[in-house]
Task: structure prediction
Amino acid sequence: MTENRPDAETGAETTEFADLIRERRAALGLSLSAFEKRSIDPVTGAQVKSGWVYRLETGESVIPPRTAQLRALREATGLPLHQLQDAAAAQFFGIERVWAESGEASALVRRTEKLTEDQRQQLLRLIDAFAPPGRDER
Result:
């Protein structure tokens, strides 16, 4: 079981996912029991138990959440699934996504998922026309 992974740059453990869940549950004013009742995946019916949430929030060892559990947590928190996935990836697997501070890059990336391969290639050529890649990006 994995709880926290060291940050690649600082070596410090990251608790990004635990912090996100703890802070969101507090903002919603939900007890662990009420949070559990809301934590049901609409696809599989899987439920995140309050004991797991408690262990997560208090820094104890937990099994990283699977997709069904992340969807259940989306139902409980009202947060976008990608935000939960990013925080879980950072905490449990040391995977950090890098986005522009404005958030525009992540919005653009999510939108490109809807494009065809030909459209994505056209977009890449357009971007290269405005900001050609450096030698290390080729």
